[in-house]
Amino acid sequence: MPKEGHFINRSNWLRASVLGANDGIVSTASLLVGVAAAGMDRSGILLAGLAGLTAGALSMAAGEYVSVSTQQDIETADLARERAALEDDPDYELSELAEGLEARGVQAGLALKVAQQMTDHDALDAHAREELGMHGMAGDANAFQAAFASSFSFAIGAGMPLLGAVLAPGGWTVQVVAVVALLALIVLGGTGARLGGAPMRPSILRVVFWGSLAMVVTSAVGRLFGVHV
């Protein structure tokens, strides 16, 4: 086990979780702030927030499923082409692998020996890693799991500003939703950075800036085009 304690192995699931939660917080808070600024009544605000949460969670699930499935299709097709090339011209593929190792700093004679050893061990895996940049074979990712994780994290994130709208006293919906959303973004940015072993301050500032900007813009749009009901 590396002494350094690297966190790169968490990057995929952490990216999906942070993206889903961030999108849930920002999009739902912005929606609530916008319709509240437009003068919509309390029941309408809550209905809009619930609809945004539901639609957003389903959209995230569909988007993540399609994204992962598409990536798997591309990787599978590339592996099939590489497998055929290994069968048709193994000598060329061996020299290609050796040249790739040389380009990374391995001496020519040693590169050929290493390439031969890698080929003997698992030729397809060696070319997938060195030539195609694929770390792990296609199909390792589970599209359904990715879809669920993204949808679930979105729903959790969206639920925070929606809860703020539920608890907000009359006339304070915009302020309460904005404060709850910003606090949630601070927690999210800090937690994401901590789990990834990255500095917390830049991560927090990023999510707070973009979240604030989204709410300010949608509030302005709501006030500009809204009609009191």
Any overview of this molecule?
The chain is an all-alpha fold and 229 residues long. The protein has two domains: 10-69 and 143-224, no CATH class; 78-130, no CATH class. 81% of the residues lie in helices and 0% in strands. Residues 1-11 have low confidence and may be disordered.
Short account of what is shown:
With about 230 residues, the chain is an all-alpha fold. It has two domains: about 10-70 and about 145-225, no CATH class; about 80-130, no CATH class. The chain is about 80% helix and about 0% strand.
Write the layout of secondary structure elements.
Elements (H helix, E strand, L loop, with lengths): L10 H27 L4 H47 L1 H14 L4 H23 L12 H25 L5 H24 L3 H26 L4
* Tally of separate helices: 7
The strand count comes to 0
Number of domains: 2
What value does the average pLDDT take? 84
Question: What is the ordering of alpha helices and beta strands?
Answer: HHHHHHH
Structural class: mainly alpha
Please state the CA-atom Rg, rounded to the nearest Å.
Answer: 24 Å
Distance between termini?
62 Å
Classify the helix fraction into a percent range.
over 70%
- What fraction of residues sit in β-strands? under 5%
How would a crystallographer describe the biggest sheet?
none
- Uncertain residue segments: 1-11
The backbone outline, from C-alpha atoms, is elongated
Which short descriptors sum up this protein?
single chain; mainly alpha; disordered N terminus
